[in-house]
Amino acid sequence: MVIQHNIAAMTGSRELNIVTNNKAKSAEKLSSGYRINRAADDAAGLAISEKMRREIRGLSQGSRNIQEGISLCQVADGYLAEVHDMIQRINELAVKGANDTLTSSDRSFINDEVQAIKTEMSRIFDTATYNEIPIFHVPYMLEVEPDPEPYDIQLFYSSSGVIGGLEFNNIRYSIEELRNIPASQGQSMKLDANGIATEDQEVTFKLNYESGEEVKLKLKKGQSLAEVKREYNWNADDTGIYVNNVLAATWAELGISSTDNAARNVAFTHRGMKISFDVEEGHGINDIKNGINGDSFTSAATWDIGVSGATGRAIAPIVGNSTTRVAVTNSNKDDINDKYYISATSDGLAITKTEADGSNSTTTSRTAWNNISYSGNPIVDWGEDVDNNDSSQISFDNNSTYHYVSPDSGVPIQYYFKLADAASKPEVINILDGTAITGSIVCPTSTTSSNSALTISDKRIDGNNDDAFALQNSYGRNFDSSQSSGSTALGGNVTWKKIIVGDARQNEYDDPETGRVVTGSTDNTTDVERLYKVDQGDGTYKYYKVTETQHDQNWNYARYKTYHWEEKCKLEYSGQLGSAVMDSIEGNEISFNVSRTDTTSYTGNEKYNYYSNMLEITDLDSAGLVDGDFTEKTYSEFEVGRRYNTQAERYSAETTSTGSNVISNGSNSYTTSGEFVKDGDNSSDYAFKFTHRITYQELYNMISGSTGSSSITTKSSGAAYRNFTPNQPVGTLSEPDFLSITVNPPKKHCIIQCAPDVEDQHEINMEWSPLNLSIAGISGADCTTKARSLSTITLAKESLNIIAEERSTFGSYQNRLEHAARYTDNTVENTQASESRIRDTEMAHELSYYSNAQIIAQAGQMILAQANQTTQGVMNLLQ
User: Fold this and answer.
1) How far apart are CA 747 and CA 760, in angstroms?
2) What is the pTM of this model?
3) Helix/strand/coil for 404
4) Domain extent listing, the chain
């Protein structure tokens, strides 16, 4: 027995190790679920599996990318759905604004809402984002609005309603000229003689009048020039921004520097268009140039302008200060009040004058159309000439005011007018010819009277009208020497003369003479105290103490006699004003009720004594008297209050005085009204009316034949002049409105990576248009007038189509992405199944293998144990 090498044990151990390793690998596969856990498990299978895993994981991320693309479409569609609703509201408001039942203020309220909606739409376009990525906004994407209407292109007529051609920046190109653009300038348009396109076309040519300016026109077959679209482009260099190769704004004008600029909106105006764009934060001129030129952020944008409707426009409206103030002078006073008219012919304008009575007409020399200009731009090319249009052939437009001055130096009438862009020469001539130039003459004067008794009213000579001028002229006003304020224009007077009617006294009578009347008296007296003894007749006596007054009295006497009669008179008026003598005017006849009282005066004298203050004395002793102190009187000789010793009354010679004439109605007023009418003139041609007031007494006091007067002064308060105002010509045409402005932007791109490959077919390239008001075609929406409301209806219709197209684009992409998501998910599933078959553990098979390995390992352990027992037996023998 060999014990040095236990070959059986070694063999068992080796086999057991192999089985154990296989069991471990099988356990790894069962526990991990993968058949290939390392390259050694299946090198080729591992390579195939990893390639499939790349596809599976890449496709899974691609599916998630697709879902994000779907979300982008849904967000964009949500924004545009609201924009769609806003445009529908604008359309609704435009239909409302086009109704004739509205006033201009009603439309202004409607337009306020339209502009507010436009502002909100613009905000949506600027701020709509997905994951902070702008959806519709593009850096340096311009916005173009009419300001208020682009006049850089316009249609014009050769006659009423007949298209004559196109006008570019107020220079007309006839249909014939458009059909025959010189080859050196570019392409001719394919038009028939009526301006109808004979084929689809996009033609480009350069204009003569502006160096390098480019015109690009689009027209489809069968369309007329009224449906033309002009395409504009812009670019920038170190100087500034150009539109169609014409410098539109310099950087300095825009406030943009070469260094960093703050983020803001920049706008400038070019030929009736307001062009604006956003400057990015920190961008200098070079960055902005790149953005505009499309060298960095995006490609350069263009825009189209086309007709959106038509506006009824006055063909040749009077504007500005068309009222001509012409001073009246002695040299033109006979012409200033004539009738004047505009005379228009194909050769130009003149003024026709017709005498005020219509007896004669004359016309001034004619001013040619090309001598009527605005800021040096004459009315030259009416579109009638087939020639080489250049900068000297400026036609007209309704934004320019033209000034015509009559060559008549005496009456230099001026005339300011505009011309509708589309108007033809025959239409303009027809409207202007015969336009009446009216206006009254102003004569600022003041007529006054120096006598307050004579008041002046209804001063027709003072009126600021033709009649006042005619009167002042007729009455001899010197218009050359009365121009300064306050100077005398006309001087004169009104004189009145008293005329007695009939006899001086009429219906005379007198009152009976009034008796003697004491008109005054004087009484000179002397008092003496007397004592009297009076026999009572019965043998008894009484004693009295009395006062004896000695009188010397004088009287003034008068007798009156009154006479009554009537007198009649009237006033006769005459006067002179300037060189005119007034017609004689007689006042009303009036009667004075006159009275006079004559007085006869004389004096009288009388002397007498008079007893008074009698005091009876009964006690002589107590009175200190004796009987002998008294003078004895009989009772008849003594009586208190009796006159005695009277002298006969004496009278002086009579003196008669004649009294003043007095009128009983003297406080009444004599009032005469009259009119200052030039001698020999019609009574309706009076200069003024006057009223003379004088009392009857004052008039009576006037001596027959005497006169009174008042000086009359007509003073100017300034120069006399006439305002010549042309009547507004009546005539309109339907002028196309080029309000349809649509920006043609570069496309926005969004690439959806759908698979783990770089080939284009594994990407979905989403493209849509950036949006702003101009791109949406709604920037020109305006409802301030009926015509603009009608144009806005057209703009809203087109804008709805533009937004609908964009929504359709996003909807289409969403449908496509949903399909891509489904088949990508399916591909991931199928590829995953294939990869599973290569790499995943077949559990049933591997369990069987693992069980088998486990049994074999157990058997190997048993055999190894038996082999070890064999050598152990030898050891036992040795013991």
Assistant:
1) 18
2) 0.63
3) strand
4) 1-33+841-879, 34-138+745-831, 143-306, 316-441, 492-716
Beta bridge partner(s), residue 708 = 496
**Residue 278 per-residue DSSP state:** E
d(CA 864, CA 387): 121
Amino acid at 121: M
In 590-685, the DSSP E strands lie at 590-617, 631-634, 643-644, 650-651, 655-657, 662-663, 669-677
* Spatial CB neighbours of 527, under 8 Å, sequence gap ≥ 6: 547, 548, 549, 550
Q: Which amino acid is at 731?
A: G
- Of residues 85 and 860, the one with the higher pLDDT is 85
Helix 7-32 × helix 843-878 angle, to 10°: 160
The answer for residues whose C-beta is within 8 angstroms of residue 718's C-beta and 6 or more apart is: 444, 483, 485
Partners of residue 156 on adjacent β-strands: 165
**What's the CA angle centered on 327, arms 323 and 333, to 5 degrees?**
115
Q: Tell me how far apart the 2 most distant CA atoms of the chain are, in Å.
A: 248
C-alpha distances out from residue 30 to 36, 50, 191, 850, Å: 11, 20, 85, 9
CB of 421 within 8 A of CB of 317?
A: no
Tokens of 304: 């189209």
Rounded to whole angstroms, the Cα distance separating 472 from 856 reads 150
Give the pLDDT confidence score for residue 210 in this predicted structure.
Answer: 64
Tokens describing residue 807: 């929504």
**What spatial distance separates the first Cα and last Cα of the chain, rounded to whole Å?**
16
Q: How far is CA 271 from CA 244, 305, 397, 558, in A?
A: 12, 12, 12, 112
Helix, strand, or coil here: 5?
A: coil
pLDDT by residue (tens digit) across 35-62? 888 888 888 988 998 899 899 999 999 9
Query: Are 775 and 745 spatial neighbours (Cβ–Cβ below 8 Å)?
Result: yes
Contact between 229 and 223 under an 8 Å Cβ cutoff? The reply is: no
pLDDT in tens, 318-327: 887 788 889 8
Residues 787/736, Cβ–Cβ less than 8 Å: no
Question: Over the chain, what is the mean pLDDT?
Answer: 88
CA atoms within 13 A on the CB side of 432: 29
Q: Is the dihedral of CA 538, 540, 542, 548 positive or negative?
A: positive
Report pLDDT digits (tens) over 768-803.
989 999 889 898 899 999 988 998 999 999 999 999
Instruction: Of 423, 479, 381, 410, give the one whose Cα is nearest residue 720.
Output: 479
Q: What is the pLDDT of residues 350-389, one digit of tens each?
A: 999 998 777 789 999 999 998 988 877 788 889 988 887 8
CB neighbourhood size of 690 (10 A)? 26
The pLDDT > 70 percentage for the chain reads 97
CB-CB neighbours of 62 under 10 Å = 26
Domain 34-138+745-831 CATH (choose: 3.50.50.60, 3.40.50.720, 2.60.120.10, 1.20.1330.10): 1.20.1330.10
Find out whether 561 and 510 touch, Cβ atoms under 8 Å.
yes
* Element (DSSP H or E) covering residue 523: strand 514-535
Q: Report pLDDT for 481.
A: 67
Distance CA 324, CA 414 (A): 6
The β-bridge relationship of strands 590-617 and 414-417 is unpaired
What burial class does residue 61 get, using C-beta atoms within 10 Å of its C-beta: 0-12 exposed, 13-18 middle, 19+ buried? middle
Which of helix, strand or coil describes residue 303? Answer: strand
The single residue listed with the structure tokens 């005339």 is 415
C-alpha distances (whole Å) from 670 to each of 454, 661, 665 are 12, 19, 11
**Segment (H or E) for 48:** helix 43-97
Residue 854: CA count within 13 A, CB half-sphere = 8
Does residue 541 register a pLDDT over 90? no
| Residue at 548: amino acid letter | E
Secondary element (H or E) of residue 84: helix 43-97
Residues 131-158: what's their mean pLDDT? 87
